[in-house]
Design goal:
The structure holds 2 protein chains of 2 kinds. Chain A is an alpha/beta fold. Chain A has helices spanning 13-17, 29-32, 58-72, 94-103, 111-120, and strands at residues 7-8, 20-21, 24-28, 35-41, 44-49, 76-81, 105-106, 135-139, 147-152, 158-162. Chain A has 2 domains: 7-88, Fe-S cluster assembly (FSCA) (GMP Synthetase, Chain A, domain 3, 2-Layer Sandwich), CATH 3.30.300; 104-162, N-terminal domain of TfIIb (Single Sheet), CATH 2.20.25. Chain A contains 5 helices and 10 strands, in the order E-H-E-E-H-E-E-H-E-H-E-H-E-E-E. A 4-stranded mixed beta sheet of chain A has the order 1-4-5-6. The radius of gyration of chain A is 17 Å and the shape is elongated. Chain B is mainly alpha-helical. Chain B contains 10 helices and no strands. Classes of the chains: A alpha/beta, B mainly alpha. Chains A and B meet through loops of A and helix 2 and helix 6 of B. Chain A: It comes from Psychroserpens luteus. Chain A: Residues 115-163 form the PaaD zinc beta ribbon domain.
Chain lengths: 166, 251
Amino acid sequence: MTTTEQNIDQILIPILEQVSDPEIPVLSIMDMGVVRTAVIENDIVKVQITPTYSGCPAMDVIGDDIKAALKAEGYNSEIELILAPAWTTDWITPRGRKALEDYGIAAPLNAEADKDVLLHGKRIVKCPQCGSTNTRLVSQFGSTACKAQFQCDDCQEPFDYFKCLK
Amino acid sequence: MKNENLYKYILGIADNSLILGQRLGELTGHGPSLETDIACTNMSLDLFGQVRSYYQYAAKIAGDNRTEDDIAMLRKEREYVNVLLVEQPNTNFAYTMARQFLFDVYHLLFLQELQKSKDLTLSAIANKSIKEVSYHLRFSSDWIKRLGDGTEVSHQKMQDAIDGLWTYTDELFHQTEADIAMVSDGIGVDVTKLKDAYYNKVKAILDESTLQTPESKWFQKGGKKGIHTEHLGYLLAELQYMQRAYPNMEW
């Protein structure tokens, strides 16, 4: 329960990779890092997932989607929600970060840079549309709990920034 | 119930977040601007998420067929043990932010200590929530400064809000019997020890915002014992309406 390591059975990875975050459909739950354990015990797949934010309404849907995806491959499963260790944006994989950018969401910076951006208005978040860093914070809270609202002052496009959570 | 003190202790933490979350949720579609509306409902969502973890744990301890929903939705007014501060209405945006700020400063100090709890579930919830609550505090402190150090009108409104809510701050540091029992078991947080840090932090932000720290020594209390201001009844009427009108409904 306190390990930061994932424990996921190799055979299950392709199945779990088909399940995506309902709020960011381009991102698989594996690239998101929310699946912590998936092991087969007595013909039942035991899956442990961890929420990005406490109130993340996507967790129930993710649990159901995992069950359905495993069922389609002939596995029964049990889903457990765990809180420790707490999820961090560091667990998003490089492929996940790229998927976010392609989708129009700026990927999280490191904790230090994130503070500079959200507290001191530093212009370093890269616009996912035009690549400019001439961007500014519109609001610390965005369309979902994990994002903040930004606008690019070069191409004028508004966009979401995935907040760093550590 | 075998572990009644722990059960009561959890409600003492969770009820604050439930009632504050409900207050913030009232602003859905009614915030002063789109961004602040979204911010308030985001914070509400964080608090409800935390509340679910606490109530699920409490339901498990209760050991009967109680669920997290029963605990949230089916208690009577006198059975809620939240502090009076969090049930105060959204009089105007200055009040909403002042209430948030006065609670956030406490909430963060509290969770920092709860992380050290011997109870692994409580420390895990605290560890998870602390990241969210630090963000809430940043947001509310920011608004204290913007309104306090803003125009003459915004300054006055924020000062009125701080003055009006000040009387509810001392109760945060009162201990219930369940608190005392849990502190001695190494599970609970000794809130009396947070008081100095709290008022120092609050004063520092108020100073920076050009606001006066109230000097009144007269404080309201009662929430932790279930004796509430008139506002809670109305809040619960709205919160509980669906479960009362259509018992056991799900969506």
